[in-house]
Amino acid sequence: MNPPGLEDLLTCLRFPSVSTDSTRNADVRACGAWLLDKLRGMGLTGELHETPGHPVLLAKNKHVAGRRTVLLYGHYDVQPAEPLGEWKTPAFEPTIRDGRIYCRGATDNKGQLMAHVQGLAETMAKHADLPVNLTVLFEGEEEIGSPNLKPFLEKHRDELKCDVVAISDTGMVAPGVGTFTYGLRGIACLEAKVHGPSIDLHSGIFGGAIANPVTAVARLTAALHDAEGRVMIDGFYDGVQAIADWERKAWAELGDGDAEMLELTGSPALFGEPGYTERERRWARPTAEVNGIGGGYQGEGSKTVIGREAFVKLSFRLVPNQDPDAVLQKAEAHLRKHLPPGVRLEIIPGHTGMPYIMDPHSTLGTAAQRALKTVFGDKIALIREGGSIPIVQAFKDVLGVDTLLLGLALPDCQAHAPNENFPIANFEAGVRLNQALLAELA
Amino acid sequence: MNPPGLEDLLTCLRFPSVSTDSTRNADVRACGAWLLDKLRGMGLTGELHETPGHPVLLAKNKHVAGRRTVLLYGHYDVQPAEPLGEWKTPAFEPTIRDGRIYCRGATDNKGQLMAHVQGLAETMAKHADLPVNLTVLFEGEEEIGSPNLKPFLEKHRDELKCDVVAISDTGMVAPGVGTFTYGLRGIACLEAKVHGPSIDLHSGIFGGAIANPVTAVARLTAALHDAEGRVMIDGFYDGVQAIADWERKAWAELGDGDAEMLELTGSPALFGEPGYTERERRWARPTAEVNGIGGGYQGEGSKTVIGREAFVKLSFRLVPNQDPDAVLQKAEAHLRKHLPPGVRLEIIPGHTGMPYIMDPHSTLGTAAQRALKTVFGDKIALIREGGSIPIVQAFKDVLGVDTLLLGLALPDCQAHAPNENFPIANFEAGVRLNQALLAELA
Q: Where are any strands of DSSP class E within B90-228?
């Protein structure tokens, strides 16, 4: 029998709410509107707030003086589903196999967001109210870097005043191990376009006399790292916060992550910055990563052309105390410095997000640890994560509060990839965790 | 009023005979069948010969002992038309603007092939026969490297016995300047695929711990050249035939090609191997060119993934005395040597073709020069070309004859590119040239 709330999760997943694809704008909005109806039906009051992009959902219970105020954040937008051919079942038709729900957004973030919703519903059904003042904030632009959320926080600063934020949009180190994430990497994206001839040219007739934009973009991409994987951008590592001794020890106690990483990724071998373990590389060291490259003929067989342009999409993952805008400036300077002759470079800056870190041993951190232990037992993990939730830094900057990241994703949930999935057991644990957390924070 | 034969050319162009695209197989065949009907209608006898790929059209007049035998070669297949969005008028609907016919295949090679056909038709209409023994050989696989033509030549060696081959599939240095091409570059193609993780991965969660296939393919691509544009593959330039003094002089007399090359290509600047003029680089120096690169996210905006694989499509243009197979071996060794750790390399060899050179001052070469002067006047050009017609070397190897390359394409005819076109004046000149050539060779 399906657990309570599962049908709602499946309904939520069927909205193809891809925020980066402007042809999906109506689907993003429809998903937000459906969530609002759901929360209103539970007795919360709220509305969808317009932004220059996708709407923000804001809902509350009746706030009572003297209670702690908790803000629950989630996002109802999802990554693009491409390449569609690699999905075993349709990307936007949730399908249950072996106890997991397969669908774009299953784990990132709708499965975890709906665990909030069902947790709230069950607490309210039992007690007619919540033990805290609750603010629910669900946005539709997380996957494009939340461009409108920080302005929204600033505009609604008083309405959003709270003591702490809680988010489930991170991972668990293993099934059944409650995991508290106290740090996230930041991000800075850019696209470099290299322009050469005004049209695609015959590579026999013209080859040898002009620069090939694809060669140029490959040379720029190759110049980002040394042969061992260090980022070669001048000043890239300036000010990077060293990993604390207790962190190195705590992470080492999680066991050897190499075998798991090889199995999860299917890579032929691990590879990364010398001098760090794989967890340290992912959780506490910055990267320069290529998310996409393209230029010239992309089809079957061969076509002997010199393409007129080529692109590379880069993202930098950042750690405390790197500044995303400064990194983008350094990256652009590096690309311009290494640009080969005979082509023109265009830089398109993308979204940015600050890295985040909080003290997991603070009062609120300790409360979160207790809630995790209520649901998962005493063995919990304190970790950082390699992903980015820029909004966490925005909550710190605008509302002055820390964020408790109590994630429910497993390492093999394929977030952002084909066949994304979410275990039903994690959904159920999430529903209980939300109730325990509200009790501990009360 | 349209010149004689133009309507036939337009009909021929409407066949989307893209040989590299297996969904177009029937269109390629239909184009060959239409041409056969046309030649039969003029009084030639012949048929379409099956091959493992697209059919070969072979047709003849009645051969008479004591006459010189001339083989006319052309190809009725065309390059893919992509990117379709860049065509001003539909790629397979010939459209006349400002005296030029715009269509995929207009210049390469249907416009020039139909000049043969119309030239034959007019000579036969006047004289009831031709002054030579004629063999027409039109194939449908030139754009994929003529994989089945050499076996065909070998199988039909006796039937194809001839004194000389004539082809119009090259260029004129300028409008109205008859051009005799006595050398062509060879070609060797390969695709390198780099495989990393078994699925696309979240670049935040996993970035830093595994090698990115796109980075690896970019590093491989960058390792092909030094910063000045020399090819860095060990032994790549071994045995390359030096440019003769008379060639350097003749080509310099064609004037400064730099300004024309900048205008034709629209490139911000010329770029190529140091120590050579732009013509020398294109006509007599070998290249390593990237025809396409791809990996990771290709769509709008950003998607923070590490793609599971990446590819680069390479082609090498070769000059006398490079051997294409040896070059492919050296290239593969170079790529394997430079492969970064943490990924797997797959090499897919592509088609090859030998470079070609003949003496333009030989008896047959001199006859061709006379025919050019009859149509274009005394100022003609002796050049090599940067493109590849592997079949020219095959004629030399199998039939033991030289090929007269009397091309009709202008530098701005956009062969292989969107908005390919052919001037009607060149079609008319070609019709006359074919008649003059038959007379001079008689």
A: 95-97, 100-102, 133-139, 164-167, 179-184, 186-195, 201-202
CB contact under 8 A, B200 and A225: no
CA-based nearest residue in chain B for residue A319? B204
Chain A residue numbers touching B300 (CB-CB < 8 A): 20-22
Instruction: Using CA coordinates, name the residue in chain A closest to B170.
Output: A205
B384 has a chain A CB within 8 A of its CB: no
- Min distance A384 CA to chain B CA atoms (Å): 10
CB contact under 8 Å between A208 and B386, yes or no, is: yes
| Pairing relationship of beta strands A186-195 and A100-102 according to DSSP bridges | unpaired
All residues of chain A having their beta carbon less than 8 Å from the beta carbon of residue B209 are 261, 265, 270-272, 278, 281-282
> Looking at residue A288, what DSSP letter applies?
E
Residue B250 one-letter amino acid: A
Provide the 8-state DSSP code for B419: T
Whole-angstrom distance, CA of residue B367 vs CA of residue A66: 105
Quick one: B39 and B170 in the same domain? yes
Going along B40-116, which residue ranges are E strands? 45-49, 56-60, 69-75, 95-97, 100-102
Residue B130: strand, helix, or coil: coil
Domain count, chain A: 2
Residues 266-295 of A with CB under 8 A from B: 266-273, 278, 281-282, 285, 287, 289-295
To the nearest whole Å, the CA of A142 is away from the closest chain B CA by 12
Give CA–CA dist A102/A89, Å, rounded: 8
Q: Do A27 and A147 belong together in one domain?
A: yes
Domain assignment of residue B78, given as a range: 6-184+355-441
- Rounded to whole angstroms, the Cα distance separating B196 from A183 reads 28
Q: Are residues A367 and A291 in the same domain?
A: no
Q: Is B287 helix (H, G, I), strand (E, B) or coil?
A: strand
The answer to the question of residue A410 being in a domain is: yes
Q: Decide if B268 is inside a domain.
A: no
CB atoms within 10 A of CB B77: 28
How many cross-chain Cβ pairs, A to B, lie less than 8 Å apart? Answer: 374
**pLDDT 10s per residue in chain B (442 long)?**
689 999 999 999 999 999 999 999 999 999 999 999 999 999 999 999 999 999 999 999 999 999 999 999 999 999 999 989 999 999 999 999 999 999 999 999 999 999 999 999 999 999 888 999 999 999 999 999 899 999 999 999 999 999 999 999 989 999 999 999 999 999 999 999 999 999 999 999 999 999 999 999 999 999 999 999 999 999 999 999 999 999 999 999 998 889 989 998 999 999 999 999 999 999 999 999 999 999 999 998 889 999 999 999 999 999 999 999 999 999 999 999 999 999 999 999 998 988 999 999 999 999 999 999 999 999 999 999 998 887 898 899 999 999 999 999 998 899 989 999 999 999 999 999 999 999 999 9
Measured distance CA(B358)–CA(A188) in Å, rounded: 57
Q: Give chain A positions within 8 Å (CB) of B387.
A: 202, 204-205
CATH number, domain with residue B335: 3.30.70.360
Nearest CA in chain B to A269: B342
The whole-angstrom separation of Cα B301 and Cα A24 is 14
Strands B201-202 and B305-306: what pairing?
A: antiparallel
- A30 burial via Cβ count (<10 Å: 0-12, 13-18, 19+): middle
Distance from CA of B120 to the nearest CA of A (A): 29
Task: Kindly write down the DSSP assignment for every residue of A85-137, as one continuous string.
Answer: GG-SS-TTS-EEETTEEESTTIIIIIHHHHHHHHHHHHHHHHHSS-SSEEEEE
Cβ contacts (< 8 Å) between A78 and chain B: which residues? none
Domain assignment of residue A157, yes or no = yes
Rounded to whole angstroms, how far apart are CA atoms B367 and B374?
11
Structure ipTM over 0.90, yes or no: no
Say which DSSP state B235 is in. Answer: T
Closest CA to B372 of B410, B423, B407, B412: B407
For residues B41 and B78, membership in a common domain is answered with yes
